[in-house]
Amino acid sequence: MFSYWTQGLINATEPYNLLIIVIGSSLGIMAGAIPGISGTMALALAVPLTYVMNPITALLLLVSIYASSVYAGSVSGILFRTPGAPEGVAATLDGHVMAKKGFAGEALGVDIFSSVTGGIFGTIMLALIAPQLAKVALEFGPSEYFALAVLGLSVVSSLGTKNELKALISVLMGLFVATVGIDKISGFNRFTFGTTTLLGGIDFIPVIIGLFAVAEVLNRIREMRGMEGIRARAKAKLPSLKVINRLKGLLLRSWFIGTFIGILPGVGATTAAFVSLSEAVRWSKHPEKFGTGIPEGVAAPEAANNAACSGAMVPLLTLGIPGSAGTAIMLGAFLIHGLRPGPLLFLQQPKLVYSIFVGMLLANLSIIILAKLFIRYFSKVIELPYNILGPGIIIFCVVGTFAIRNNFGDIWIMVFFAIIGFFMERYGYPLAPIILGVVLGPIAEENLRQAMIISDNDPMVLVSTPLSAALIILSLISLFFPQLRKLRRRREESG
Predict the structure, then answer these.
(1) What's the Cα-to-Cα distance from 286 to each of 277, 324, 482, rounded to whole Å?
(2) What's the domain count of the chain?
(3) Which pTM was predicted?
(4) Which class for 387: exposed (0-12), middle (13-18), buried (19 or more C-beta within 10 A)?
(5) What range does the domain containing 313 cover?
């Protein structure tokens, strides 16, 4: 194995291949930071360029785009509350609040450190125990997927809000949004109101852009304020040893969560980010501080989503099953070059496989330098007067929303959710739960119904395995624990 690592290092560090990794990482950062573009689109655009490359160079380009784009989705979220990609939404919740408090540099630094370490950890796990991880992932059935989604939703009662009823209303709104479109099991139209725009469901991108980006512009215009609080310190500042020591336990947990969720086909880095954030809230001694602008709210999701990026390569390389949209595109690139991912790939093309491992490590390490350079110039946008910057953000939002599916209907969806987000914030309804519902709702519904069909509508199937039962019990504890803690405090105060 050592010889394969050595050969992989030699291949990845050839001057031309090293340049390709730098170019790919730069493209990934730019694509991930610009709302509506995302790494998936960048990968799709890059695949035709790989026709003239050898397989190793081609895949190094793609994995570097993939790894760096997952990180960059949170950069614009922290600075402008405009997540560049769905993976960056969770970190936006605390990151942008930190930026408004004058700690943009600290938030961006924690973002970089968490992303890089998460990506490196996921890649090491990918290289060392990929086949074993893939076998564990195959044990997940509909009951386990449903329980995992419920676990993520259960944190809604304590996710940075003091009003559990408003949080519950928000998450129910998100779950409702997730039901719109053609039912994948029965084929019936649900809440489409006779329009073809909603037949395919409501895409996640218009929802987050409307709720976060456009609604934020509307709020700033209403309050007649610009980006003054963020202008002071918008240069990335890597966390100190004291901060790293404070975050070490949270980071370790998030790395494992992200890697494991990443290997589950079809779940993705966005879900990993929210589940990791929910676990950070669950294990925190001060869960009420999440959403108020703390480094933990940035570190947990960013460590997890970058680890999930590497984890998604596990089923691709070991089983030939793409674990995410990005790896599905890379599967096409493998086939273009006459390669078939699967167990035999490690035996037939070990030098290629280990070149990919080394390339992912180098791509993650390059983020430290490239991200700081990118942020230095990207943050200059903040210095523009807000009467120019605000409309500019909205233009980017419109273009990015339209570019996803080339559908004007998505623009109207974005506008609708911008209005919803504007009034939700005005009346104190949190946005995080509605995003949780939109992300985890489809996973919960589809797997619940599949489990019911398999078991002939026996609800006990949801706790029929030790893993699903444990996840459901943990979800119930998480859901009711904040209320029990409040009752205990009241008794202590009255006593």
Answers:
(1) 14, 33, 11
(2) 1
(3) 0.75
(4) exposed
(5) 2-494
